[in-house]
Amino acid sequence: AQSVSQHNHHVILSEAASLELGCNYSYGGTVNLFWYVQYPGQHLQLLLKYFSGDPLVKGIKGFEAEFIKSKFSFNLRKPSVQWSDTAEYFCAVRFTGTASKLTFGTGTRLQVTL
Amino acid sequence: SAVISQKPSRDICQRGTSLTIQCQVDSQVTMMFWYRQQPGQSLTLIATANQGSEATYESGFVIDKFPISRPNLTFSTLTVSNLSPEDSSIYLCSAEKAGGRGEQFFGPGTRLTVL
Fold first, then answer.
1. Rounded distance between C-alpha atoms, residue B67 and residue B51, angstroms
2. Cα separation of B25 and B106, whole Å?
3. Distance from CA of A96 to the nearest CA of B (A)
4. Which residue of A has its CA nearest to B44?
C-alpha cells in the first residue's frame, strides 16, 4: 500500500538552530510532493510543493525541500528556525493514478525554544 | 489559491444525533475532499465529494455514516450520522483547482465533540 513516513514525531530546537525533517514515501512511480504546516490554532497551509524539474524547491518563510528520487525522500529544511516556526508539519504525497488524493504522513511537531 | 470557510467551527453533540458541516469555497474548484483529523494525529481522507454525483469513499468510511453532498462547484456538506464519542474529531474540508496536480487548500476545520 502507498504510504508516507515521517520519522521525527516531535522535534525541539533552539532558535537559530538548523532544521531538517524527514519524509519518505513508498512508491517507485511519479509523485507530486507537498509540505504543509499547521500553526497552533490555525488551518493547514501549503509550505512548498514539488511537481517536476529542479529537485530543490523553495517555499515560504525560508523553508526548502529536496526531492531525492533514489531515496524516495522529500526532506524539509530551514537553516535557522525562529520561535514562530513552532507548528505541526505534514508531508503529503500524491501518487500517480490516485485521482488527486493526497496521502499524509503522521506529522512532526516542531517546538522552537527561545 | 482558494479561501475555504466551514460552518460550524465547533459543536458539542449528543450521542445518536447527527451533525452537518458546510464547506464554502470562494471560487469554483474541480475537486473537494473531506478529511478527519483526530487530536494530535494526521489527516485521514474520508471521501472525495463529486459534483453532481455520489461521493467516492475511502476504505473504512461508508455513505450511511458520512453522507456527503456537492450541489455545485463551490459548496459541499458532510453529515456525520448516529454520533458516538469515537466520532469526536476535527473534520476538514479541502479543495483543488483544475490542474492543481494534488495541491489542496484547506478550511479551518470543524471541531466536533460527542458526549
1. 14
2. 10
3. 10
4. A104
